[in-house]
Structures are given as C-alpha cells and as structure tokens.
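Complex record, three chains
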Amino acid sequence: MADFFNTYGHLIISTLFGAMLGLSIYLPLMAGQLSLASPGFYSLGGYIAAILSTQFFPRSEGTYPLHFLGVEVILSAILSGILAIALGILVLRLRGIYLAIATIAFGEIIRILALNLEITGGAVGIFGIPQPFDIPLAYLWIAIPLLILVMFLVYRLEKTNVGLALRAIQVDELAANSMGINSTKYKVLAFTLGAILAGIVGTISAHFLNTWNARQGTFDSSIIYLAFVLIGGSKTFVGPVFGGILLTALPEVLREIGNIRLIIFGILIVLGTIFFPQGFITPNLLKKWRK
Amino acid sequence: MTKHQITPILQLNNITKKFGGLLAVDAVSFTVVQNEIFGLIGPNGAGKTTIFNMLSGLITPDLGQINYLGQDLTKLQSYQIAQRGIARTFQNLRLLGNLSALENVLVPCNVHHKTDFLADFLGLPKAQLAQKKTYSKAKELLDLVGLSDNIKQQANNFSYGDQRRLEIARALALEPKLLLLDEPAAGMNTSEKASLSDLIRQIRDQFNLTIILIEHHIPLVMSLCERIAVLDFGKLISLGEPEQVKNDPLVIEAYLGNE
Amino acid sequence: MDFSLFLQNFLNGLSIGSVYAIFALGYTLVFSILGIINFAHGAIFTLGAYFTYALAGGKFGFNGILANAQLPFQLPFVMALLLSSVLSGLVTVLLERLAFKPLRARNADPLLTLVSSLGAALVIVNLIQYLVGAEIYTFPANIYGNLPEAINFGTATKPINIRTVQIIVFGVSVIIVTCLTYLINYTKVGKALQAIAEDTTTASLLGINSERLIMITFFISGFLAGISGTLVSSSVSIAGPYFGISFGLKGLAVIVLGGLGNIPGAIGGGLLIGLAEAFVPSDYSGYKDAISFGLLFIMLLVRPQGLFGKKLIQKV
C-alpha cells in the first residue's frame, strides 16, 4: 500500500485536480455556455499563490504555514470571482463557438501578460514555491476533501431552483427569458463559479508543483479540460470528474510505452469522441448502477 | 359591453419594425382593455408574431411605445416583462424539450416563489415546504389544462396538442395579467379546438386575465374574441368586434386578394 | 516615426500579414463549409514546414528515430514547396476521413469536433517530435536562389532595407490568394463550395456531391496550411514541432476578426493583424502576440460577426 502511494501519489493528486478542472468547465456548461476560460483562471490562481508565498508572506523555517495557504485560496477565489463577473458580463452575450473563442483570447492575454511582467517572473516563471507539507503525498489531505466538497456543492446546486433555471437556459435561453429568468445573471453566476474553482485549483497546484510559469494554463489545456467533460460525459457532474481522472492519468499510465505515449493519447481522444459521443458516464448509466 | 372598456391594460402607439428593407410592422396602434379576449389576425407575414415578439421584449421596435399599466415595455428586457406579468406561448413551440412537463411549469413558478437560495441549497425544511407548495401549484396548472398523467415525462414525448396545452400551463405559472397566445389551436383537431376555446374562456375568468390571441382558424377567433385587430403587410387595416371586422371590405380583400 | 521606418514596418507587416491571410483562408474555408473549427490546422502548418525541409534535401538532427536521416534526392525549393503543400493537403484529407467524418456521420455535437481536432493535432505534433526530435531547423540561405539578403527600397543615404525572403513570401501569398479567388468565384467547384457554404440542404438538392467537396475543401485547407508553414519557416526557421500551435491560434484570431467563414474577411483580417504587429515598438515586442488577441477580444464584443461578416440574426 505504502509503495503504491509512493509510486502513484503524485499522479493521484494530479488526477483529483484534473477532476476539479473538468468541473470548472462543466459549471458554465450547466447553463449551456461553452467557456474555455478555466486555464486563464487556473494560471491566475497559481500566480497568486506563487507571488504571495515567495514575495510577500514571511519565509520561515520548516513547512509553509497552512493558514497562509488558506489566505491564498480565499484571495484567489475573490480575485477570480471579481474578474469572472466583469469578464462574464462582457463575453456571455456571445453564443457557442464565439464565446469559446473569446474565452480562449482571455486565456492568451493572461498568458502573454505572465510572460512579460516582472512580478510573474517573465518566461522563467517563479521557482521554489514553499511546501506546506513534509511529503507531497500529504496534498491528498487537501485534494480529496476539496473534490468531495466541490462534487457535493455541484450536486446540490443541480437540485435547487437555481439549478433548474440553469438547465432551462441550457435548453433554450430565449424561452427561459420569456419565463422571467434573467439569463445573464445565471450565466454569469455559473461562469463565475467555474472560474473560482479553476482559480482555487491553480493556487493549490502551484504549491504542489513547486514552480509556476506561463506554460500552465495554455490554450491546448483548455481543450484538454473540455475533453475531460465531453469524454467523461457532459450530462452529469460525475462525467467531468471521471473524465478528468481518466485523461489526467492516461498519459502517465502510458509512460511505460515511452515516447509514443502522447501520440497514443491523441488517438484515444479522437476515438473517445467518435465512439463515446455522449461520454462514458451518462445519466442513464448512473440510473442503471443505482438499481 | 361591460366595465372592462374603461381600463386599458395595454396601449400600442405607432409601433414600427423594419427587417432589412421590409416593413414588418408599420405604425400600428391599438388598445387592449382589461379582461377582454383580443384577437390578432391577418394573412401570413402580416406582422402578428412580430408584434408578440415586441410585446414580450424579444425584439425592440424601431419606433413607437408600448404602454403596459403605465410602463413603457420597449425599455424592458424579456425577462423583466415576463416578471411584470406578460406571459406568452410560441407559434413553433418552445418547450424545454428534455425537461419533464412538471419541470417546464416549475421554471416560471419559481420566478414568483423566491426561495432563500441557501435554504434551498442546504435542503432546509423551510425550503422543502416552499418546494412542496410550488409543486402542488404546478400540478394544479397541469390538471387545469388536462395534463395530469405522465407529468414526469420529457416534454418532447408529448403529442402536439398536449405540448400546446403544456405551453399554456407554463405561461399561466408566471401568474400573468396579460397572456399572449400565438396560434394555440395550430395542429389541433376539431374537438381539441372546441375544448381549447372553453379552456381559454375558463382561464380568463379564473385568473382574471386579459388575453391576446393570434390564430389562423377564423371560426375559433370569431366565436372566442370580443374584439379583433386585422393586420396586412404590417399595417392595421381593421379593428372592432367580430361582426364588424368580418364585413369590412378591406379585410375581405386582404384575405381573398385581388383575384 | 520617420517615414522610412514607417515604410519598413508597413512592408514587413504586409509580408507577415499575407501569410496570416493564406493560413487563415484554409481555416475559414473549412468553417464556411462545415461550421467547425479545425484545431489541427496549426499542426498541418508545422507538418508542411518539415515536409519542405525534408524534400529540399535537409538533414535531420540527432534526436528522434529519424536522426541524421536525409532523403536520397534533393528537390529544387519551389518543387519541394509545392510537393510538400500537396502532401499537407493529402494528410488533411486523411485527417478528415479519420477524425471528422465519423463524427459527422453520427451527427455528433460540433463541440466534439473541437476535441477530436485537438486530438488529431496532438497526434501530428507528437509524431513529428517522435520522428525528428524537437530541435530548430533552419533552411539554407539560398533556397530562393542566389538573391541578395535584402533589397533597399530607399536611397543610399536613407536605406529602407526589406529582407528578400519577405518580398518573396508576400509575392507567393498574393499569387495564392489570386488563384484561390479565381477558383472560388469562377470555377464549378468554387461555385458548388459557395452553395454548400450558404446552405447544405439546398446544395444537396441541387445535386451537389457534398462529400466530395468536403474532401476538396480539406485538401485546399491543408495545402494552404502547408504552404504557409513553409513560407514562415523560410523567413525565420522551424522552431520545433509545436511552432504551429501558436500560429494556429493567431489564425483563429484572424478569421474571427474578418468574420468566421468569410473569405475576404480572412484576407483583410490577416493583413490587419500583420500590420498591427509590425508597428509594435521593439521595446514591447513581448506583447506583440497580445495584439491579435486584444483585437479579437474587442471585435467579439463590438461586432461578433467580424469586419466583413453579415449581421448575425437570431431566429425567434
């Protein structure tokens, strides 16, 4: 058991982060909004952690105090939230692919800023982000409860009137509006929740990875997160969790086969979209399991 | 006629809408008074649905005002108009197809029964109670339009006529003062049409509604509506009680053409 | 800014802008026919550059399983360029068959095509890396013949030097755009393509074989990607397997700026972004890439149908 965790601990933690990033795309999708802004907020959250912990908070001997990490998480959530509301009001008037492209542009602008600003360490990035734990495996104590909490929150959200309004907008925004639903408000809400989640995951990831740079949260990762949702299944929140875990683990599991692993990964993504157009996990499948 | 002539609920004043070069609605003015069933008829492309779309805020008129109980609707967005008590159905049905019939009705119910989000989120007893209330209200409305079975079925599994009735139930869930019905009888057979007429009268009386109705089936309009406006190529060509309109030479020409 | 610097920037901008334009044309053609964005377009761009490098007799480096490999023959550069573009077109057709057609046949959600095309891009990029490694390859200086390094458009006292490569790049792009415009407006195939772009159902009623035309579209698209990959790398170098990805994103900015699916829009958008980038002061060159995305972002907010697009009307 201990061996297993030593070998795969890093991977397990990464997959849990992947699951949450999948959910961060899933949240706006609940209101039918294809946003690819998650990598931008993920990157932002990471920089907040990296900058605060290396430049602002006092360095001490031993492990990095957890309450500092808590402050970072809260700050990331607030900043991501504010930025997402402002961005959301601007871009959520766009539909379909146009929204996706606008959010890609947002991510690219964040990336280019990060590459050029001094505070983000330019192209090199920020190194030596302090560790709150003695062993990396201890990140499980954050990742597991956080994922369970997020899943529970999304599950409950779907059961509320707000969740119903989001579904109404997803099916037919115009009809939802004419039933008295302020769709802009709900779309911004769903978008903002996704952004906050991505920001928080970025913050914790920055510590976990020990280093942060502009290669975190690039454009291709946005499509990979989208793949988490679509291949996992976009009709239930279990889908993105499953997809995030599967597709984060896959390249690592394939490591054994060496250099061609990313080629195989690409092929599997193509095959996944062709043979599982509804994703692996569908609401019907979940019903079957319950019986 | 009765007292309702006295209080107008809706006044269209010089409403105009252009699509490209086409004048879809051309300086149309009329007044709808409280509690009446008002018919809007005219050949295809006369601009009837365009007027509905402007009344419900889906499009904005280029010119003119729409006064509804002292407010100018042209400045409001569609959800605000819906919240202020104007509900509508759609000519080409816009049900939330993969939601259940019950959920379709619950969506607008929730607009008026605001629950505390946190209580709702945590599933507190208070929220559960509120939810039970809205559920029973939604079920009542479904009963009213004759859809008490299969209310947990997806809306797009319903027959065409049932979907039209479901749209009416959904519109009623908004607790409207003014109800806009866009071709409610389309695709219904004769007996369904008859019971639809009864239903429309019944809901008008029961909920104290004002109803504007677009309909192609002329006998239905003539028997049901108290006043009728006739549009042709975006212009209002006749307005009055059914007998009056029926004998208006302009209306006859519009319907028969200059053959 | 003095005039000669202005002119120099302007000509540079035209040169790079014209490559953006032909790259984006391939992108927008596929969108106009199928309404999908092919994220593998940037990978084909890369592939085209490597094809040309190999066909022109270039030798591969130390990494990858093709280390130190070299083709037994060496084509003149122009031949290599053409053949490589044809090969790129064929690979794109293959891609269409393998990654897009099955989805189309199943009437799948268009979002899946985005993911599938990214999967395809991953395959191509990593295949290149697997075969020839990630190092930078540079074309020899004399690929376009023994021309001077730069041409002076100014006077001896006030030189305005423009690199010869860039003039050639611009010339080739103009030729390509002209040919394509002719193809689309004056040939049967082009008219059929326009019909499909307007409306697939009507087109099939007219007896237009859309499957064959989709293949032609992907071929042209791949051809354009391949040729632009070669042109860019002949002016700078092949910066590794991933160098098409960022170019692909810029192409996306170009086609949205001009109007998705709009052919004159892609050309106008390409030139606009090329010129805008050329005038970024060198102190801020790090922000050069932000221009296209900034413009794209503003355009989406102000006029989502793009510079040349028709107004999008939502049907009620």
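Note: The longest strand of chain C covers residues 150-152.
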